[in-house]
Design goal:
long-chain fatty acid-CoA ligase activity, ANL_N_sf, Long-chain-fatty-acid--CoA ligase, single chain, 608 residues, alpha/beta, Rossmann fold, Luciferase, domain 3, 22% strand, seven-stranded mixed β-sheet, ATP-binding, eight-stranded mixed β-sheet
């Protein structure tokens, strides 16, 4: 720990008027101390944990063999059973001649077989490429080949079987093994995995097979969403996978008796935060094949769930369900996740009475994260002046080019920090231990893709920061995101607001645009357009007011409940592509007016 931290924590323990005076002059000091304590705890546990995730799992399989590791569709799968199935998988894959540092692609829906297949590969030190199970055709081919895989293992599901057989010609010499066929013959070009599982004994794999692996070696590839292009395989080391679980365990105070509800796709990093935490704690995973708003709380009650993981708009679907007297009848003590909008947060707190909603901000390939453990709606983290001063690997919000999402530089070539209330691009310093020969690898792809995420010489010669690509806003000592969307959704008739930037022909930078969906029974007529205009002018500074509005019948959401922006940004306000009603900020009439071909040219030349 730094000397400044020791002094601060030592002083904080002093009783009497000194502490009272501190809290009077610096009302945020209590929250800062709580964050410092949490960061210290996470750091200590990471430092003390030098074993691989598979080592932790095998330890619990030996210590608590009969304890449920997975609850799936009311079936219990013990630690011992999952370990035995993982041994079967490992022995099968070993017979293929594969071993440490080879790579196998996995394409699975949420099911127990995913976990024992993954753990079986880990027993051999094999890297697993976790492919998005929704991909088809070229994106699927690209994702498999980008990881330099040797074989592909596909989980149960006719859709998965159909997707893989459609692209066999594009996968070259890959050998494809499919689970879930049972006694049915495999289609031409693929092999059934099920008969191999039946005849292979669950003989334990000696840990010496992976003895040469370290925390720096790859555990798996988790792909970026691909919303700005084809999915890119992010490098997830054994250490990173372990650290994500430790962080999750500390944020949720996870104990062995906890039950963690996982409805997010297992190919997603958020799901692996929960899975890694449970494996390292000896807790139980309540795994759901697919998110269901109507079954969510009944599942939590039936299985006595204590921790849930959310992302994006998941809670919006829950509050859209009819209210019930059972809404507060559950054992959930903490909800951990990211992307929870302020308006939804408030409603969730009131209706479901979850003691703690812990919001965090990070990225699959990110080098750091921030968190809000204070139940403060709308904030994704905390970065007070004190915390930023003590941070060994500082973070910053900087001015940027809206068109390229690249930081702007001052006359000395350094990044420019934003002021309170001003939107800024989130960047964070890359820890020295992750840098080798001046390089920091993020993706298993070209050097250009890696370098595009780095900000070199950000504040000092030779420093390296990572560009997270997201815009956050300083709100005093807290950081808040999607601020514009939060403001818009405060209107009674607005159901959802997706805010993004669009290019203007012949102009630098981007203009703000929002895609709106309305609450049932409402319309976007002259009255609502006038109210929308007055609301954004009153609540938002001029630079943050959306210039264009697109009225959607239904929100566009990804498989992980995030707002989908890529197609919306690409189509912009092009009336030849967009079939939805379009409007523009009309200052002359003090409203949002319909955007038509006749006034588009005039509008662009005169207003922007």
């Amino acid at each position: 720990m730094k000397l400044s931290e020791k002094i601060l924590l030592g002083s904080a323990g002093t009783a009497g008027a000194g502490v009272i005076a501190w809290r009077t002059m610096f009302p945020w000091i209590r929250d800062d101390l709580k964050v410092i304590k949490l960061v210290r705890q996470i750091g200590k546990e990471i430092q003390a944990s030098q074993s691989l995730l598979i080592d932790k799992f095998e330890k619990f399989a030996a210590q608590i063999p009969h304890k449920p590791f997975i609850i799936f569709e009311d079936n219990l799968f013990s630690y011992e059973l999952v370990d035995q199935m993982a041994c079967r998988v490992a022995n099968i894959v070993k017979s293929w001649g594969l071993g440490p540092r080879d790579c196998v692609a996995m394409i699975f829906h949420n099911e127990p077989a995913f976990l024992w297949t993954f753990l079986g590969l880990q027993k051999l030190g094999i890297t697993a490429a976790l492919i998005n199970s929704n991909l088809k055709m070229h994106p699927l081919i690209h994702s498999v080949l980008a990881a330099n895989t040797k074989h592909v293992i596909v989980g149960s599901g006719d859709d998965l079987l159909g997707a893989i057989t459609e692209v066999l010609d594009g996968l070259g010499n890959q050998k494809i093994y499919v689970q879930g066929l049972g006694s049915l013959p495999a289609p031409t070009g693929v092999h059934s995995f099920d008969p191999l599982l039946q005849v292979t004994l669950p003989v334990a794999i000696s840990p010496t097979v992976r003895a040469g692996l370290t925390l720096a070696d790859l555990s798996c590839y988790i792909y970026t969403s691909g919303t700005t292009g084809t999915p890119k395989p992010a490098l997830i080391s054994n250490g990173r996978l372990s650290r994500s679980g430790i962080t999750t365990r500390c944020l949720t105070s996870l104990k062995p008796e906890d039950r963690y509800y996982v409805v997010l796709p297992v190919f997603h990093s958020a799901a692996w935060m929960a899975l890694s935490a449970c494996i390292q704690t000896g807790a139980t995973v309540v795994l759901k094949q697919k998110f269901s708003a109507s079954q969510f709380w009944p599942d939590c009650r039936r299985h006595k769930v204590t921790v849930i993981h959310y992302i994006g708009e998941l809670f919006r679907y829950l509050i859209a369900q009819p209210p019930s007297e059972l809404d507060t009848q559950h054992s959930v003590r903490v909800a951990l996740g990211n992307g929870l909008r302020k308006d939804i947060w408030v409603e969730v707190s009131k209706r479901f009475k979850i003691p703690l909603i812990a919001e965090f901000y990070g990225a699959t390939e990110g080098v750091t994260a921030i968190c809000n453990i204070f139940n403060k709606p709308g904030a994704v983290g905390r970065l007070s002046p004190l915390l930023n001063k003590l941070d060994e690997y500082p973070k910053a919000l900087v001015k940027f080019d809206y068109a390229t999402a690249v930081p702007l530089r001052d006359k000395n070539g350094r990044c420019i920090r934003v002021s309170v209330g001003e939107p800024g691009l989130f960047i964070a310093k890359v820890p020295e231990y992750l840098i080798q020969n001046g390089q920091f690898r993020i993706y298993q792809s070209s050097a250009e893709a890696n370098e595009a995420k780095l900000v070199r010489d950000a504040f000092e010669p030779g420093d390296i920061y990572m560009n997270f690509g997201d815009v956050l806003v300083w709100k005093g000592e807290n950081v808040s995101t999607t601020e514009v969307a939060n403001v818009i959704t405060a209107l009674e008739f607005v159901h959802d607001a997706n805010v993004y930037g669009v290019e203007i022909p012949g102009k630098e930078g981007r203009a703000g645009m929002m895609a709106l969906t309305l609450n049932e029974g409402h319309k976007l007529g002259p009255k609502e357009l006038k109210e929308l205009y007055e609301h954004v002018c009153q609540e938002l500074p001029s630079y943050a007011r959306p210039i264009f509005v697109r009225h959607l019948d239904n929100a566009i959401i990804t498989s992980t409940f995030k707002q989908q922006k890529f197609d919306l940004v690409k189509e912009g306000f092009d009336i030849n592509k967009v079939k939805d009603p379009l409007y523009y900020l009309d200052s002359e009439r003090s409203t949002y007016s319909p955007l038509s071909a006749s006034d588009l040219t005039k509008f662009i030349s005169s207003r922007l």
